[in-house]
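Bug #77: duplicate submission created two jobs. Keeping one. Sequence:
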Amino acid sequence: MLFRKSEKAFYRTFNNQNAELNIAYPTEEVTEQFWREQLATSTTYNTQGSWIDEEINAAEDYNSMQYQPFTVTEISEIIKGLHNWKTPGPDSIQNYWLKKLWCTHEALTSLINEIMIHPEKLPLFLTPGNTYLILKDPNNSENPANYRPITCLPRLYKLMTSCITSRLYEYCEQNNIIATQQKGCMKNSMGCKEQIVIDAIIYDLKLMGATKNQLEQMLKIVEEFSEDIGMSFGMNKCRILNIVRGKLAHDEFELHNGEAIKAMKNGDTYKYLGIKQARKIEHRAMKDDLTAFNSYACSVLGYSFGIVKWSKTDLVNLERKIRTTLTKAQKHHPKSSVERVTLPRSQGGRGLVDICKQLDQQITNLRAYFHREALTSTLHKVICAADDSTPLLLNQHEIQTHHQTNEEKMQIWKEKPLHGRHINDADQDTVDTLASNYWLVSGQLFPETEGFVMAIQDQVIASRNYLKYIVKNTTIENDKCRYGCQTAETIQHIRGGCQMFSATEYKARHDSVAKILHQELAIKYQLQQAEKLPYYKYVPETILENKNYKMYWDRTILTDHTVNHNRPDILLIDKAMKNVIILDLAIPNNNNLGSKHCEKIAKYRDLQEQIKKQWKIETIKTIPIIVSTTGLIPKQLKKNISELGLNENLYKSMQEATLLATARTTRKYLGNPSKPQEPYTIERVPTELNPSDI
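Kept job's structure:
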């Protein structure tokens, strides 16, 4: 699967599917001219600005930075922190190779130190880069200014600048040079979300004036500073929001150079770090946009948590929308347990993001951060005291949470009469809960099959008993088995209790698991030299033998005295040690899982005595191999597999084969709603069980 190979490539396919093929791009000449003006035109600076002298005087107390050569350890630590597969520059080298080829770190350290001391020795091939123009707004694709330039420089150049940045950051941190409100390069800060919260209270990145005259004075200061450093106002992105007696005034504002800043109109909003605002954050508009993003990935919503106000109802509706979308795609049964959807897979759930929990975690983390920073930062202290309007409510000591904990969800799940039966069976002392949920953790099944298996476990399959007594369908006259059995048609009956399926579907499921075990034993004891096959293609031979071992498959054992149970699934003989192991498999319903182990041992006790006397065997033992119809794994199973000298993880393949066969059997059972079918003979059972047919 593409997702397993590259998550980045997988998510990019979503963008590609929605890409417009008829976008009109600017010509090469227009694009080159625009960006040449931006990048190649030199700008003069005012080196005599009064504010420059103030900054120089303020820096007199800083300790001067003394250059020390980089060490190999320092370079190695910097390389370790780089992303493995960042897009490379013209050198086509990716960070992964720098990490793995650690033997080059000493030479790289030497070269970097040489360039630091003698910059003129920097090779020219390290400075060019590949620039990619990323379109911002598809509705304005012909404007070259509507593209974001991303330049990929040579990897070795990036390593060198990373080393310099590391030293500079350490120096700035030691001397407290970086301003509190500067978050772009600060480590351990909350970045954009922190700035949005501050902006919502103090507006530190917008000019605010009580009157128009005050605003004019402030603009003059900003304009003077901007001209000194060679920058100018981006007039297409500047707007005036002038509120007079609660109403918007539409007067433009003229700068001293003659340019005019337009006024915002009713309904206009501007974006600050991706969040729409006007007089305040537009919570409703942002929720609509972010709800649309939810169809792409739940994690996108996380950016709004703590900034946009989400109610409990909003979040419940979002989670319901997720479930209905899965149901439409046939990946979730509409009557399946709601709690399982957001529980971790290791606990028997689907592992989807719990949006309520994500909201609470984001708010808790942001609140903890602001309160911690308030101990040393005056800015954050003021924010915490003044905030009574953002979702963080920083001026309150405690706030109410929205989500249920996993423990609460598990308890609700267990208490449900139908849904709770599976989890209660899985919680028995004899059941290995983690192993029983491995099929969910591994994610090997198709999502449609996974959803169907969970519906089987939740017992919401449309059996006659379910339709008559749970759904209250009045068209169902009786709940007896549709194939002629005189017992109630429950999901337990479908999974493993119908006599009409015992010689066909149940036998095929049983043999699928037995084939896995037989092939592993044949390979371990060198009873066959053929290449290992998938279990659904493997055809066991009745007898396999070499000079040390002999193995029977589903063969009647002839004894001197009559024995009722003389046909085990597998019988393995160690000729040299005169040992015999009887292997018998069972795939019972959950309610019979605990008793099957003892039942199998007692079943072959007479056969053991006859074999021991007749074949003059030193030791003989029966080892049961048991998996439930819904994939529950007894704790004893791993021990039994290990006792055979096999890897205990073999249970994973057995579990998958069992669940696929159970899903296939259930679909086949429900395929004929009324008329009994002729029972299949064993000869008609296909020798190959293809998972694509399940």
